[in-house]
Amino acid sequence: MESFGRVAVLYGGPAGEREVSLESGRNVLEALQAQGIDVVGIDAMPGTLPAQLQASGAQRVFNMLHGRFGEDGVVQGCLETLGLPYTGSGVLASSLAMDKLRSKWLWHGAGLPTPEFRIVRGETADWTELVAVLGLPLMVKPIREGSSLGISKVNALEALPAAVAEARRFDDTVIIERFIKGQETTVGILERQPLPVIRLETAREFYDYTAKYLADDTRYLIPSGLGETVERRLQELALQAFDALGCSGWGRVDFMVDEAGQPWLLEINTVPGMTSHSLVPMAAKAAGIDFATLTRRILAGAQCQMQARAG
Q1: Is the peptide bond before 161 cis (omega within 30 degrees of 0)?
Q2: Model pTM score
Q3: In the annotation, is 269 catalytic?
Q4: Which of 27, 94, 147, 152 is catalytic?
Q5: Beta pairing class for 198-201 and 263-269
Q6: At 24, is the pLDDT very low, low, confident or very high (cuts 50, 70, 90)?
Q7: Which letter, b or e, does each residue of 142-161 get, where b requires 16 or more Cβ atoms within 10 Å of its Cβ?
Q8: Which domains occur in the chain, in start order?
Q9: At what angle do helices 228-244 and 100-109 cross, to 10 degrees?
Q10: What is the pLDDT of residues 186-198, one digit of tens each?
Q11: Does 137 sit behind a cis peptide bond, omega within 30 degrees of 0 on the bond before it?
Q12: Is 17 a catalytic site residue?
């Protein structure tokens, strides 16, 4: 059995997804402890994390911090400076994946399909022109937030200003995106291998925070029912999108599949959830990988990724 030395699981943190991160981190901590791994949990906060890590004696880090600070390159930079191997993507890829706007620019430049959008940087815009270009409904999103925080589906022109104001509570820059009517799907990636496709069904307007973490009626369909051709295309496109941003280790790529079967890229999560409602553990289980094995494989990749980043 591989020896990992002392492992620090980072969770909690200051972001809006703190509660989700706490649950994810506790689940990972317990799974690693059950395998006899020397592991310590750290509720990571800006300013204190380097001292916490040094005091813990950590030799490797399992990062379960969701959202800003933990998923946007900041913690990754700290860990690089300390010379600690860590799970997930590096500094640049983490920063890009957290930024929906720059992700879309890169995907568009790489010829990958992502819904048409417009940027709103102030409090006002020509709402009539936006609707004329993008149609209705529309999706309004802060560019740097996770777990669907600040995201709204807008069905009428007069609702746009309020939706943008809500998104701006989370970020000064907002994107307004063409709504894709169809199926919400996701593809997990582990060690450059796409996991089985999951199709999501919710009674809510879209797969929002409540549908992700609180609702008991959200349906997770594996197999997706979309057919082998579409599933294979989703998996191929997920890996292409992952590579375009320079992601590594593990992650999750979210899509809409329109009524013609065309996939559209929405975003990449470089630190996916590991809660009872989370999607990567579900997909891994469908591929015959139990939760304990999943955590161990993610952890084992940390050293390889650090060596790759070092060249």
Answers
A1: no
A2: 0.91
A3: yes
A4: 147
A5: unpaired
A6: very high
A7: bbbbbbbbbbbbbeeeebbe
A8: 7-87 (3.40.50.20), 96-112+181-286 (3.30.470.20), 117-178 (3.30.1490.20)
A9: 110
A10: 999 999 999 999 9
A11: yes
A12: yes
Q: Is 254 among the catalytic positions?
A: yes
Is 213 an active-site residue?
A: yes
What is each CA distance from 126 to 141, 172, 173, 270, in whole angstroms?
17, 17, 16, 34
Active site annotation includes 267: yes
- Between residues 150 and 73, the one the model is more confident about: 73
Quick: pLDDT tens for 12-22.
999 888 999 99
- Which residues, at least 6 apart from 3, have a Cβ–Cβ distance to it below 8 Å? none
Q: Answer for the pair 119, 273: CB distance below 8 angstroms, yes or no.
A: no
Which percentage of the chain shows pLDDT scores above 90? Answer: 79
252, 278, 296, 301: the active-site residue: 252
Euclidean distance between the first and the last CA atom of the chain, given in angstroms as a whole number: 27
Q: Which of 213, 224, 249, 301 is catalytic?
A: 213
Give dist(CA 294, CA 297) in Å, integer: 5
Pairing of strands 219-221, 198-201: antiparallel
CA distance 234 to 185: 9
Instruction: Retrieve residue 239's tokens.
Output: 């890996």
Whether 252 is a known active-site residue: answer yes
